[in-house]
Every structure is written in C-alpha cells, then in structure tokens.
C-alpha cells in the first residue's frame, strides 16, 4: 500500500526523548554508582514487574507514534484514467498510525451506537418493521459483534471459552520462547549449564528479578492473547455512542497519556535544572530573581494558570487555521501546547528542590577544592554539582509521571485538556459521563478508561517507589 | 513578630504585581482584544463594527499600556492595563459577561465553597493522620505492608472515579442522599455529606502515605528512645511525643492550603452542582469569560501568599525553636 510518513511534533519529541533515554542507558553503563543504583532497582521484584508493564505501555505508545497518511485509491480521485502525476498528491486527510494499522479490525468495525461488552445486540431498542408490515421494538443484532453466532445467548459462553483457550495457548507459546531466551542468556552469562540457570530462575536467585519479569510478561501475554482471540469477533469492552470499539479507544489513549506524562517533564527539565542549580550556587541577585520567578508562578493556582493559558492558546489555534494541514496536526499542536503549559506550571517544585540541594553541595570540600584550583563556575556546575543532583532529577521525573497522567483526565473533563478530537482517557471519561444518567447505565467505557489508567498509574507509582529507594542516599 | 508580618506583606506586593503582569500578558498581549472579540462573537457575526462595539462595551478599545492621546496622568491611567489589572488590588473585578458584578458574586459563592472545603479539610486531616498513626503503630507488620499497598492503590485511582463511583453507589444504588444540588441553611447538610466524604476518601492514599514517612522519620530519633527507656507505653510515645513533633512538617504542607479552601474544589463542586467558587470558575472557563478567570487567578494568588505567611506564623506556634526575625 502506498502511504506517506507524517511526523507530528509530539512524535518527533517523543523520539527525541527515547533517544535521550538510550543515551542515558549508555551513560549509566559506564558509570559505576549509577549502574549499582539501577541494579538495585532491577533486583527488586516490584521494580522488574512494573518495568515490564510500563514497557508494554511504551510499546503501544511507540506503535501509535509512527504516523502516516494512506494514499487514496486512484479511482476516488478521478473517475477515469488519471495521469500518473496527479495521482501522487492524493493522500487521505486522515492521519493513521502503525497501531491503527495493527488494530484495523477494531478501528473499522463500527456499530451504530452503544453495545455492551460481548453483546450480540445493540444496547438500545429500535423500531423495526417486520415482514408482515407490523412494527415492533427489539434490540437489533450488531453488524460485527458476535455476528458469527446464530444465537448469541446460547452459543456465546462456549464460543468465548474455546477462543480464550486458543488465545491462552498462543500466549503460552510466545511466553515459552521468551522464558527460554532469558534462561539461555543467563546460562551464557554465568558460564554454567542450562539446568542450573533454569533452577536459579525458578527459585528467584538471579541478580535481576527475572522471575518477576517473566511472570508479569506472562500475565500481559495472557491478557493480550485473550484480547486478540476475542477482539476479532466481539467488542470486548463494548462500543461507545458512535459505535467505536472501546478497547480500541483505550489502547489509543495510552499514547496521549504517555506523551503528557513524559514530554511535560522533558520540557520543564532544562529550566528547572539550570535555574535551580544557578540559584543555589551563585546566590545573590540571581538567587533573588529566580526565587521571585518561581514564587510568582507558584502563587497562581495551577489549574487556573493552565486554564488561562489553554484558553488563550485555543484562540491562537482558532485564528490561525492555515498553520495546520490536517485535523490531526491541529489536535497535536494543542497536545504539545498542553505539555508546554503543564511544564511551565510544574517546574517550580523541582527547581526549589535542586536549589536547596545545591546550597548544601557548594559548601562541600571538593567544590571548595575545585574553586581553589581555579576551575570556572560553568565547569564546576557541570562537573561537580550536576552529577550530584541527578538522583533528585531522576526521582522527580518518575514521581511526576503518574500525577500528570491523572491530571490529564481531570483537565480534559474541565474542558482545558487535550483537543476533543484526541482520544485520551480524559475525553473517554468525559463522553461516557454524559451517559451515566441513562437507564440502564452505560458503564463500560468509563470502567475501561479507569481500569487502563489505574494499571498505568499504579505501575508508575510502584516503579517510582523502587527508583526512589534505590537512588535516595538517605534510604538504606 | 508584627514587624515581620508587615515586612512579609510588603514582600507580597511585588509577587502580586508579577502575577498580574503574567495574567495580563496571557489575556491581552498573547491575543489582541480583536481576537477575543472574534471568538466571542462567533464566526457568523464578525463584522468590523461588531468587533468595535464589543471592545467599546468592555473598554478594550484603548491602548494596552500607554495612552499617547491622553494628557498628564491620564496617559497611564486611561489604558487597559490600568483598568483591568491595577484596580484588582482594590478587589474591584468589574463585571462578568452576563453583566453581574464579579466581586459580589464571589462573596455570595464563598459560603457554599467553604461549607464543603472546611469539613473536607478537617476530616481529611484527622482521618489521614489517624490512619498513618495506625500504620506506624503496627510498623513492619503485615498490616503496615498492606496498608501502604492500599495507600498506593488508592492514590493511583483517578479522582474522577471516586466521584462518579461514589455518586453511583451512594446516591443511585443506595439512594441515601440526593445526587447533586444545594440548599441554603442547615438543609445543605443533606447535599454536602457525599462530596465531603468522597473528597476525604480520595485524599487518604497520598496523604496517609506521606504522613507515615514523616512519623517514621521522627520515631527513629533519640528522644523517642529516651521516652521508651523511661517506660512510657508505645501509645503514649506516639501521641505525646511523635505526633507533636511530626506536626511541624505536616503543618508546612497543610497550612498553605487553608486560605485556598475559599476557592473551593473545581471538580467536586461542578459534579455535585454546588454553587461555589469552584463551579463558578469552571463555568467561566467553559463560557470563556476572561474577566472571571482573571479575577479568580488574582484571588487565588492572594490567598496563596496569605497561606505562606500563615505557615511561617504557625511554625512559631508549634516549634518554640523557630523565631521570626
């Protein structure tokens, strides 16, 4: 199929962030104390298990960040024989991602409106005309959900069970390969036999907690296997108001959450680190100015500052529609702007922490010695102060992530979050909330959004705890 | 002490001016009044005359900072900046888009906001501190471990879930209290129980975990060992010594939010239909009523600065070693 790559701003920055992550890994491998700290993270079962879950989310987000515009079929451009050069420019205005392509069956199978999880019929009654001319109100069958069954009521349980079995079998197959790969690498690294490596793995005696990682990976595979096996014939989490599959929406929301949680910190990091260190080390009027700056920003209630900034940005985006070629680019600009705004409002906390820590560090002997040797201020900051406050930065990064993911949902609910067209947990909840008053209640899209968010935030929180324990020198 | 407070209040002035400059820049410089008018009037009714009329109605047809056409003092006073920004220091916020006086509206709505925020604050602090104390009393046991796990799980749940779930369970399934609404006077209690309860529960996870770390830090100090060596029971040590000393870091984090209680909670108020300042702000954001949002930003920052001052004063009250100079 013909397509054209689209690099949205957030994609580009997300890749930059990943590249930075890789550079950090290389840097960590070279530095002995950092390697020790990360090994401590890896030796904890919680650390490995949550890291596995977070990596799974990251894979979803990454697949969803590879954007392209599919080519329109030539016939749609021009009814007859179109010349080759005019055909080239015809790309769909709809921006898709690799995840969309993977989930094409979920994305394209739209129902008419709400349907419950695993349902074979629409949730609402509709008036249907019977062949004999009479009208009745029934739940019409879905176009796709459980369409392969003649009578969903009686056949469904057995069908689901057999599909689940297939999914679990496939999952186990993949898992076995992964387990064997881990065992093989363990055996090679220790230079001992396979059986020994395997028994160390089962007893949980490896340096890194591979057992926990494998168990978690198995659980993820089971869930994924079940979703794949069932998703092709059912709407596992039901459908929303316009008939979109809720499972698809939940998976798409992951990218938005990751972008908000990570890009925001990327944006604020240079400011917070530079200003915090400078305020602490230089003191004097620099300190006064920086302190004034963050007290002012802190004094404005966060939500209101965000609201004001988002309202204003909305006006800018609305008055300059010529900047954006597609709706996706406009939504993306708003997402990026939201990250910027969140970053500006949230750098103050880290800045204050860094200032305090630098105040302590500048009085230490090795800094005095560097100054006595005539090392320049910039070099002292870079070589002696920066590496010694990095654990604070690291901890703050991981701790902020979950808060930002939760904040996105609330902000989108207030109407100052992402573009209403962007699929995110916030917009999902917002749309579902309007339907809570229905009788009977439409609960599944709410519950799906909350469940996904809970798993993501809980693993991020637990991971943050492990990281803090490993990096904070005050904790044993 | 008095001199200190006066000095701190004087120090607050440049901060408020900074806040004012930032909001003014956000609302008037980033977007010209023309843009705002266009957005407010909608796409169809935009004509140059309509825009001029819209600006004239609000006094936005003047220059931003310096009015070159006026004379003398008027040069600075007959501008948007003077009118919109500086008069806020006199708590004169002008009128909202629906023509009502914002200052009056804020006074009216303060009470419902406080009626929710104050009980939430007191009850929340009490519940979280008690829970944390219990975890510390049973420290290094299964109860402690699972309590912390519970805290982490509770803080990983979106606050929206607590609200929606609570409304569904208590109001719809059990039908104990009305889903939303408000009534003046004592009748309000009926409407307030659920939002207060939900806010308290939503706050337990993060707060109790934080208090627990503070208590644990305190409990490893020498004076606690001395107290135990004297033969005090563990409960007496906890309540008489640890709690008192741990209140200092807890107060720093907590006192600063007391004045902000006046602002109410954005989400809770709008979910429960309580006519407080939080829902006022949300409505203003949704209606893009910039005057109201600006007024709320200003009030919020004033309250924050008051909170900082209260924090410092409360230090001296709980810790005699701290003297304000």
UniProtKB/TrEMBL annotation, chain A:
SUPFAM superfamilies: MetI-like. Its main location: membrane. The keyword Transmembrane applies. It comes from the Bacteria. Keywords: Cell membrane, Membrane, Peptide transport, Protein transport, Transmembrane, Transmembrane helix, Transport. Residues 254-464 form the ABC transmembrane type-1 domain. The chain crosses the membrane at residues 6-29, 41-63, 168-187, 208-237, 257-280, 292-315, 335-354, 392-416, 441-464. It is found in: Cell membrane. It is a multi-pass membrane protein. The keyword Transmembrane helix applies. Belongs to the binding-protein-dependent transport system permease family. This is ABC transporter permease subunit. It comes from Aromatoleum buckelii. The lineage of its organism: Bacteria, Pseudomonadati, Pseudomonadota, Betaproteobacteria, Rhodocyclales.
UniProtKB/TrEMBL annotation, chain B:
The chain crosses the membrane at residues 9-30, 116-138, 145-169, 189-211, 248-272, 292-318. It comes from the Bacteria. It is a multi-pass membrane protein. It holds the Pfam family BPD_transp_1_N. It is found in: Cell membrane. Residues 110-314 form the ABC transmembrane type-1 domain. Belongs to the binding-protein-dependent transport system permease family. PANTHER family: INNER MEMBRANE ABC TRANSPORTER, OLIGOPEPTIDE TRANSPORT SYSTEM PERMEASE PROTEIN APPB. This is ABC transporter permease subunit. It comes from Aromatoleum buckelii.
